[in-house]
Amino acid sequence: MSARRNARPAVRVGTHVRFRGVKWQVVALSGQDIHLLGPDGGGEAVLAGHLFADPGFTVIGADVPQAAPQWGLFETAPAAAREKALAWQRHVREVECGLAGGPGSEGTVRPQYDPEQHTLAEREQAKAEELTALGFGRISRTTVQRMRLAYRKQGLWGLLDHRSTRAPSPTGRADERVVAAVREVLRRRRGRSKGTINGLFPLINQILQDRHGAGAVPPPSQATLYRLVTTLARPGELPAGPVRQTPASYDGRAFTPTTALRPGEQVQVDTTRLDVLALFDDGTLARPELTIAIDVATRAILAAVLCPSATKAVDAALLLAEMAVPHPARPTWPNILRMDRAPALPHQRLTTLDERLAGAAARPVVLPETIVVDRGKVFVSRAFTAACETLGISVQPAPPFAPTAKGIVERAFGTINHLFCQHLPGYTGSDVTRRGPDAEQEACYSVPHLQDLLDEWLVHYHHRPHEGLRHPMMPRKALTPNQMWAALVAVAGHVPVPLTGHDYLELLPVRWQAITASGIRIHHRTYDHDLLAPYRGQPSPHTGRNGKWEIHYNPHDVRQIWVRLPDGQLTEIGWIHRDHVHQPFNDHTWQHIRTLTLHGNHHDAEQHEADLADALDQLMRRVHSGHATKAEQALVARTATVPLPAARHSEEDTGQGADDPAQWDEDDSIDDLDDLPDDGTHPAPATGFGLYDAYEEADKW
């Protein structure tokens, strides 16, 4: 053990130490090994670090080592208190070792403080008399001893007058029983709807009466209760506070950032209402519901689906289908939004691995490994979990009442509202105080329109630098989601998704319809086939749907549907007028045709449907021949697979609108198609989410 007084204790041969609650003697030192001899004569060799880390380790007979100075806390004290503490430090050191500067410092030891001539008690008494004479007040030996022990335990912080560093009590001099009652009331109200502060007072008085008896605690004044509630309430608990809910960290969980090292390692999925009004099919105005999936590693929004009503399990399954395939680039999009024109993406190398990327949009394609969802019924439903199981995706529910577990997708919603929604007519703002008086009059987009605009905006989003994406070699440069995907896909690799055509059909949206004598009727379209003959007018085996049959449909090509027959397989059933329409179309195009076809006998359902098919074919032919208006071209471009010719600039060129029923004469009917020259227009598969002819797609893999 060290011979110098007041120094840190040291372990030497012959030193006695306490280790594991037993007294040992050090008998040898060999590098990092310390050889100990126990009281029973047994020996043991331990590492020095292991010995010193033992909670009960002490060097027997050594002075207690002085604590390291807490300079950070010491600097928070007032200047006068710090000066007085530094003065006490010199006096305490002189009592302990005889020198005011500490052991080893220069100076002469005064006789009354010489450790070799006087005991510690005598030196403490001499210092007490000296300090009293110097004007420190009436200082006793006990005070000097207390200050010396405080300095040994806490350093300079122990020598401060803590009356100058003590923080004021937030509750002041209020009765602790009243404070406890206020805390209990706030705890009980946590998670419930907010009222007023005044509404808490009866409950506080009731708790005081139940705990301490009637009249035992003097009733506090109303001002005191207001002050206590305002002081003790956490953010979100104060009835008048603007915070919508209590942060998740108050229940003990820490805020841990979400990290992922490869694309698809973790994908967060959530649903919210967009801050924009849309025109629904029934003519009402409301905010559509948006469901998105965002990759944590690249911050890429892999899929986004808009629904006019509440998101259902089949809509969430469609989200998986979007993530599973590349998104095709629309013919009307700028070339920079195509993957083969994006300089940040390794297009040529990826195309050799997956041919579907040849005409894809310039945005990442990722198959998730793990999906983090909340505990909503949609994401824990059998349909969604079964679809994830089919694709080999693990579903990880987030902890309840913990929005920070999906903080990235929650922030993505704010980005969409800030960068996309606020530039649209019908923008409502984040709350009613931000909503304009003419928001409902400005709203003009339908849900399919918004979906098209959102799909195009998402490609632009992936070219925008993201502050959360940094490369280790370029920490000061924010990368775009496309750049981060290109960097990580080179390390993690990209493997085409081996989905079969049956998998695509199972992931399509579902509706339930009856099979009538004429077939299956959906929005004035009739789907029929000879295979339906045994099931016409018959209930389906699924009794929970009132005898209706399970129908799968592609929202971007409604020329055919798939019905699940009793054999369990999905069978394709075509529209009876499918051969008259040479291009895919969606429901939005069909509804547009219905609003224009006002003539004809609507009492004859078959003739009315034939007229609609004829009008639809006329629209397709006008668009592909360059005689359509810009509105018609934009309508058909959603499902087009090849670039469309330019639309005519105005309707003054013809003097009559192309949509005027008078223009549909007998010379422009579908019966004269055989007499027309071949213009190179052929039937094309559907596009949209990349769910084309499912079985034909499967053959390519």
Count of alpha and pi helical runs: 21
* Number of structurally distinct domains: 5
Pick out the low-confidence regions: 1-6, 246-250, 650-694
Radius of gyration: 40 Å
Name the CATH homologous superfamily of the largest domain. Answer: Ribonuclease H-like superfamily/Ribonuclease H
Mean pLDDT: 79
Please state the overall shape, judged from the principal axes of the Cα atoms.
Answer: elongated
Structural class given helices, strands, pairing?
Answer: alpha+beta
Briefly, what CATH class of the largest domain? Alpha Beta
CATH topology name of the largest domain: Nucleotidyltransferase, domain 5
Strand order of the largest sheet: 4-3-2-1-5
CATH architecture heading of the largest domain: 2-Layer Sandwich
Helix content: 25-40%
How many strands appear in the DSSP assignment? 20
The largest sheet, given as strand count, sense and whether it forms a barrel, is: 5 strands, antiparallel
